[in-house]
Amino acid sequence: MAIFLVLLGPPGVGKGTQAERLAEESGLPHVSSGDLFREAIKAQTPLGREAQTYIDRGELVPDKVTIAMVAERLNKPDCAEGAILDGFPRTIEQAKALDDVLAQRNASVTLVPYISSATETLLQRLGGRWTCRDCQAVYHVLWNPPSEPGKCDVCGGELYQRPDDTPETHRKRIEVYLEQTAPLIEYYRQRGLLVEINGEADIEGVYADLLAAVRHIGDKKPASSEEPCYA
Ligand code: AMP
């Protein structure tokens, strides 16, 4: 049975960093809707041009295009064993669509680690964020600086501040999160899938808690299950 993890949490809580690490360790692909949009913007596709206007304002891209884009990504062969979803779903409609896409292949969301944090911490984190132009790795001037300023440790690419990384957009993104995405906490809690993780800890601390949560996936399966639990 494939494993689909949904990393839930506000912008700036470090979902991307954690998802990337977990992807490396588990071998599952990291599927980030934000990265998919940024790639489309870079390539100047019609989807990219449409998404850009929303992203620059800190608003959500409409469900219809977002769902189609992520569904297409999840249907690629590398997602056959599952995926680590980061930034999707962000609305109840997207969550329902994800359930449908997975149900079509006899799969379902396995676990939803919800990384929580206070708004002030999020604003500080969003403020010092730098992203690699080439591989999208994320750094922070204080908490996770690159070894060489302006240069990506992973691929040597140039680091830049995302155009949606302005104080006004940060506030708007948090507002949008509280209105449209936070209801997913209850959606997944009611389904028994939510595990809360304290996002105020440092990167290592959050990752340790995330790994501990993921390790329990195996516990939910029948004793005879031979599925990996990434212990
Ligand atoms: P992220 O990199 O996840 O912070 O996403 C950057 C921006 O892309 C967001 O502020 C939204 O404008 C857009 N975006 C990413 N994922 C979604 C989604 N699931 N639904 C709608 N918009 C999204």
Write the layout of secondary structure elements.
Elements: E1 3-7, H1 15-26, E2 30-32, H2 33-42, H3 46-57, H4 63-74, E3 82-86, H5 92-103, E4 112-116, H6 119-127, E5 129-132, E6 138-140, E7 159-160, H7 167-181, H8 183-190, E8 194-198, H9 203-215, H10 217-220
Helix pairs in contact: 1-9, 2-3, 4-5, 6-7
Protein architecture, described:
The chain has 231 residues and is α/β, with parallel strands linked by helices. It has a domain at 3-117 and 182-220: 3-Layer(aba) Sandwich (Rossmann fold), CATH 3.40.50.300. The protein is 46% helix and 14% strand. It is built from ten helices and eight strands. The chain has a three-stranded parallel β-sheet with strand order 1-3-2, with helices on both faces. A three-stranded antiparallel β-sheet has the order 6-5-7. Strands 4-8 form a two-stranded parallel sheet. The longest helix is centred in the last third of the chain and has 15 residues, at 167-181. The model is unreliable at 221-231 (pLDDT under 50). Adenosine monophosphate binds at residues 11, 33-34, 37, 54-55, 58-61, 66, 87-88, 90, 94, 164, 173.
Main β sheet profile: 3 strands, parallel
Shape: globular
Q: Considering DSSP H and I runs of 4 or more, what fraction of the residues is helical? A: 40-55%
CATH superfamily descriptor of the domain at 3-117 and 182-220: P-loop containing nucleotide triphosphate hydrolases
Described by its quaternary structure, the protein is single chain
Rg computed from alpha carbons, rounded to a whole number of angstroms: 17 Å
* Assigned CATH architecture of the domain at 3-117 and 182-220: 3-Layer(aba) Sandwich
Q: In percent terms, what proportion of residues is strand?
A: 5-15%
The CATH topology annotation of the domain at 3-117 and 182-220 reads as: Rossmann fold
Count all strands and give the number: 8
